[in-house]
């Protein structure tokens, strides 16, 4: 005589009393969750950001000569290493008038680099460069450039930094200028 196998019952759950059951005392009973008031300024999860009106299909209509070019710290340093005149090489690249713009964050980053990069600081203080004031907290230049480019699509970003280029490529309608093979 062998042991009889007992078939297991699947999807059987112990019966539990609901917390709202009448048999539970009033103090132990679960209260109905209060509804939260929706904040109209908060971004909704299902809300898709609307594309700016300047983007017609994938073409950015705000870009046109004279081009405003946001310059990054390493772009200035690489132009010095490649022995390029920054403004002239920009004009040769775009065949139009260029206005290089430099933010306060980038300027602060160049000043922090110290004595070794004094030539870059002198180039950044050139009167042909347009200074853009920053009103945000923190001085991380990459975040500043990405934020400015997302708000205003009228800039070309000049950088050699791979991480910054990767971040800017995700923003539609923003061209990137970089130095390769001493050009």
Automatic annotation (TrEMBL):
Its main location: nucleus. One of its GO terms (cellular component) is small-subunit processome. SMART domains: PINc. One of its GO terms (biological process) is rRNA processing. Residues 23-46 are annotated as: Disordered. Transmembrane segments: none annotated. Residues 67-166 form the PIN domain. It is found in: Nucleus, Nucleolus. Keywords: Nucleus, Ribosome biogenesis, rRNA processing. Part of the small subunit (SSU) processome, composed of more than 70 proteins and the RNA chaperone small nucleolar RNA (snoRNA) U3. Part of the small subunit (SSU) processome, first precursor of the small eukaryotic ribosomal subunit. During the assembly of the SSU processome in the nucleolus, many ribosome biogenesis factors, an RNA chaperone and ribosomal proteins associate with the nascent pre-rRNA and work in concert to generate RNA folding, modifications, rearrangements and cleavage as well as targeted degradation of pre-ribosomal RNA by the RNA exosome. Belongs to the UTP23/FCF1 family. FCF1 subfamily. This is rRNA-processing protein FCF1 homolog. It comes from Chloropsis hardwickii.
């Amino acid at each position: 005589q062998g042991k009889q196998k007992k078939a297991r019952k699947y999807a059987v759950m112990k019966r539990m009393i609901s917390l709202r059951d009448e048999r539970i005392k009033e103090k132990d009973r679960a209260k109905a969750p209060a509804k939260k008031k929706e904040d109209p300024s908060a971004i909704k999860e299902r809300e898709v950001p609307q594309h700016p009106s300047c983007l017609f299909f994938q073409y950015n209509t705000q870009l046109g000569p004279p081009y405003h070019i946001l310059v990054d710290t390493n772009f200035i340093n690489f132009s010095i290493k490649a022995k390029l005149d920054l403004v002239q090489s920009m004009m040769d690249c775009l065949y139009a008038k260029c206005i290089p713009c430099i933010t306060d964050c980038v300027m602060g980053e160049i000043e922090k680099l110290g004595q070794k990069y004094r030539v870059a600081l002198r180039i950044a203080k050139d009167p042909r460069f347009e200074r853009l004031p920053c009103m945000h907290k923190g001085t991380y230049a990459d975040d500043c450039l990405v934020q400015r480019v997302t708000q205003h699509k009228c800039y070309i970003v000049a950088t050699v930094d791979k991480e910054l280029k990767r971040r800017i490529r995700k923003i539609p309608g923003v061209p990137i200028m970089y130095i390769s093979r001493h050009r």
